[in-house]
Structure formats: structure tokens, C-alpha cells
Amino acid sequence: MRTFREFVSLCEQTYDKEMGQTIKKIGTGVKVGAERKKTAPEKRRMKAVGGGKMVPAKDYKARTDIGQQRKAETRVQQPTKERGSAKLDPRAAQRKAAMERRAKKAGAKTPTASQLLTKKTKPKVSPDYKPQKPSGNTRDERRKIKRAGQRLVKDMIAGRERPRSAYEPGMSIAMRDREKK
What we know:
Elements: H1 4-12, E1 15-16, E2 21-26, E3 29-32, E4 46-50, E5 53-56, H2 72-75, H3 90-106, H4 113-117, H5 139-158, H6 173-180
Antiparallel strand pairs: 1-2, 2-3, 4-5
């Protein structure tokens, strides 16, 4: 059994060896628990930085309400009517029961417990499916490449001939002019 002073000093430490937990102060709250952040090579989410290169995406920001207890009224839907108002009057209850009996007789029965507990089967994915590999190009770079291709196709249809540099994405107008001379 610990005294209150011992408990306070234990809480002020950043690492509790007995419990094996890291205690971090973020914003106004205190986060209790082991550090579970992944290192850069472990991260799966990647971001294109351009030039065909990919880097791990940024970390998510820590929530500002860490360590605070959330109130029930913010988490759970609160009743809008007074208690007991959902009860049916005797006539409506009788009518509902009669309709349920008719539905049961017609064959529209409610699912049994075993039917409710069975897991839904997920749609099978083809074993030949290969996901598209990321190009490493940024959105702007992909757009430039796509538009250069569209320009080339349009010129081929029109029967125009331009220098190859006119279709290379990222080539400046000045560089194209130099090639023309």
C-alpha cells in the first residue's frame, strides 16, 4: 500500500518501471500507455515527393483532449422524449401483434439466433489481382505527363509534326525554343 505522497511522486515521473508504461504530457492532458508509434521504415503510408521517390507520410497530430474524460452526453444519444412515451396504447399493441402473426404465417419469419450469429462471407478477390504500384510522381507531375500524351495524340490525328521536346513534361518553353533553332 502506497501513501499519497509516494503516489504523487510516481505520477510525476515520465516512466513507471513497475507498470512498464510511458506517461507523456500532451497539451493539457496526460497520455498513459506504452509508446506505440512506428519508426519511419515500419510505416506503410507513403507519399510521393516527386521524381519517382516515395517517403513515409507525416504522423497524425495528437488529439488535444488526451487525458480528459468525455461526458456521456457527447458520446451517447440522449432521449428526446420523456420516459415511457414509446409504449403503445392497448389497441396499437394488439394490431402490431396481429400483423406479426400474419407475417409469420406468410413465411416472413425473423432470423434465428444461429442465423444472426453467422458471419457474412466476404467477396472473394481474384488470385491474379495485382495492385497498381505507386509511380512516385506527385499529382502535378502525373497531370503533366497525361496532358503531354493527350497533346501528342491530338497532333497525330491532326497530322502535325512537332519536335519531341514539345511533349516532354516539365520542359520549359525556353528549352523548347532552343531546340527549334
